[in-house]
Amino acid sequence: MREEVERALSPLIEMPLWGAHRAADLQVFKLGDRTPAKNHKGEQCEVGEYALHLQCVWRIRGPQGIVVGSGDLYYPKGDSVEIPEDFDWEKRNRRDERLTALLATDAKKPLLVERVSADEAGGFVLDMSRGFRLEAFPADSLPDEYWRLFKPGDLSTHFVVTGRGIEAQD
Known about the structure:
Elements: H1 2-9, E1 16-23, E2 26-38, E3 44-54, E4 57-62, E5 65-69, H2 94-104, E6 111-118, E7 124-128, E8 133-137, E9 145-150, E10 159-162, E11 165-168
Antiparallel strand pairs: 1-2, 1-6, 2-3, 3-9, 4-5, 4-8, 6-7, 7-8, 9-10, 10-11
């Protein structure tokens, strides 16, 4: 599996990671050239040349340690670990805040993917410029989808890794 995952992710090398958004707890990362498109509501948006959807545990590390991770979704903005009674992770959370700040930092120097590596369980690392890395690591034994990489608008390019292995590829 390691070689197949590395081969699937290798087109990302030298591409910028420039955007991110969520669909519930699924994290979407946008990589490569920006392309105008319409979202599922018919609204104008920009998509990347590639989209990376993560449903497994993930984190982005920088020179000073973990910048943001999948678990930050369930904490309020800021640095407090106290969760107020009215907290709604769908509307305001630490993950969204930190990703927005990271991707907005010096837009003239985007995070560029420099190397890819993978493991035999479907996990991977995207080593990026400026000492950052995106790490994804399946952390359960369920058969569900861990992550997928695809070109938006092209159903034939989906590379999907699940608890059962690689489910689809071009």
